[in-house]
Amino acid sequence: MLDRPVDRARDQGWVYGLPPGISSEQWPLDPVTGFPLMHGFTLLLPEDYRVHGADIVAVSFFATAPDHNDGGAPDDPEIREAVMARPSHPRLSRMSDILDYEYAALLLTRAEYEGPFATPPAPLALATAERPRWLDVGSASAFFEAAALYARKMFAIPPRTDLGETRAIAMSPRASDPNAGKGPQDEHVRKNPPTGYQSYFYFVGGVPSADNYRMHDWAKDHAPNHLGGTMRPSQAEPEMSPFYVEFEEYFGGYNFGGGNAQLDFKDMKFDWACG
Predict the structure, then answer these.
(1) 148-185, pLDDT tens digit by residue?
(2) Which residue, of 26, 106, 243, 268, is most buried by count of CB atoms within 10 Å of its CB?
């Protein structure tokens, strides 16, 4: 995440702000609250990661607003049924977490990715939750207002109070990653055949202890927000395809309890864990 707003002609997407190329009616609502889910990031996928066809070039990720995510999702069947009955984007995938909060991803064509920013839809008339802060000041400013000091340091200057305020995404290849192209697995709890995935750390002599903990040299310069390769989850590795993005709380403005998250955009799986 860079320290400036997106330049859509040259950057690889953006964090915060608004999704591109969709109608307000296609913006996914939260089945828990009836408010629009918050846009976290839109990412232009490198050609090797366009696993849904050459015409699907990007993914937009939406999440429960952080001020609606605390302690476990209430369930209102009337709201859920009304949300799920609405027309949706043809490439919408919905996901939920262990607390039953909601997330969504949209796979975007080139025309959609290059399209104008969308306008958030009105919440359902049934919605009774408090209005999420991002709808009034933008998701970047809302996150900055509530963020811990270490997260605020991700911003060179405070973001503007604007729904369209973004931060650009830039990509660079990892110089060395033996896990490139391999599905992440925790060897102790994996359910699928081995992929050849290696942990980024080891214990000297195979004896687990704080004194014996070591990180492989090839992992020491890996950025926390990345596509594929070696995963650095806050807890155990979720089993995913090689086509995933791992990101921190500030990369879109979430409440992951100080942790990070992983979105498998091939199989549309999502997981997060607290730090």
Answers:
(1) 888 888 898 999 999 999 999 999 998 789 999 999 99
(2) 106
Q: CA-to-CA distance for 104 and 39, rounded, in angstroms? A: 9
CA torsion angle 113 118 120 124 (round to 10): -80
Handedness of CA 13, 27, 36, 73 (dihedral sign): negative
- Mapped onto helix, strand or coil, the DSSP state of residue 218 is helix
Helix ranges, the chain (H):
77-84, 110-113, 134-137, 139-146, 149-152
The set of residues, in sequence order, having a beta carbon less than 8 Å from that of 248 and lying 6+ positions away, is 224, 225, 260
Q: 60-100 pLDDT, tens per residue?
A: 999 999 888 887 888 899 999 999 999 999 999 999 999 99
Please give the Cα distance from 63 to 244 (Å, whole number).
16
CA atoms within 13 A on the CB side of 115: 18
Look-up: residue for tokens 């609502």?
A: 29
Longest dimension (CA), the chain: 61
Q: How far is CA 142 from CA 13, 46, 134, 135, 147, in A?
A: 20, 30, 5, 9, 9
H/E run at residue 60: strand 56-63
Contact 233, 273 (CB under 8 A): yes
83-to-22, 89, 218 alpha-carbon distances in Å: 17, 13, 46
pTM: 0.94
